[in-house]
Automatic annotation (TrEMBL):
GO terms for cellular component: cytoplasm; protein-DNA complex. Residues 256-277 are annotated as: Disordered. It comes from the Bacteria. This is DNA-3-methyladenine glycosylase II. GO terms for molecular function: alkylated DNA binding; DNA-3-methyladenine glycosylase activity; DNA-7-methylguanine glycosylase activity. Its EC number is 3.2.2.21. One of its GO terms (biological process) is base-excision repair, AP site formation.
Amino acid sequence: MSGITARPEGVRLDRCDLFLDYVGHIWDPGDVTMTRTGKRATKEQRAAYEYLGSRGDSLALWVRSTGPIDAYESHLPVEVHAPLEWLSFAIASRQLSRATALAIYHRLVTQLGGSITTERVVTADERILRGAGLSHRKARAIREVAEHADDGLLDPDKLAAMSDTEIQTKLVAVAGIGPSTAQMFMMRYLRRPDIFPAGDLAVRSAITTFDRLDRRITPKAAEQRSEPWRPYRSYATAYLWGYVWELHHTDEGAGMDSSFVRARPKPTAGRSVEAGS
């Protein structure tokens, strides 16, 4: 059993009164050797829980009531095994419904002969890529990603040797990949523990609600706010997303003040893709 069983000293409870009634009956998460999905918590998951739960801020209260989580879970039902597959799905699914994105991705795999590889993408006629349902811009972006294989972006071993900053810098230099896609790639595919998507609307909305701000926090301010959560900002992000989901999908959360919060799909198990722009 974790030593985290009581409210942190010095926390201004008035700053998070909107959810104290809800978390009050589950303050002690029980067996913190297990995640909420019933899996045994890893050493990293327990360490992130202990660390974030002891920060003495409003997020810490939510962390302590939730217990350990898997920060790398995703909600999209497509398995990927290589960086190019992940990035191709991220690009193909942008601004599309889940069903449409999945259909296009499966057609793309079929059009390329059963798998998405660097050689097949680079040598494929654009009509083949467009035939899967991709727009000209998305087809061009996927091809450009494949053409950057020499940068090490598609080599798991080379990626493992790069810092978070180096990976993001290389990715956003590719047409069609923005900061959000780069951050989700590092968090969901590479499973990096200290990624923080400061521009994410749900993240910013949750911070705004927790800290009782008058206006939604800006990306720059959110980045600064995340500093105390290093080196587990991927976990802090997942806890913030979890709060938003609970707020919109439980009876307890239905009556809370949600003026600054918008729903985000609840993550489920699996090494899947969560795409951004």
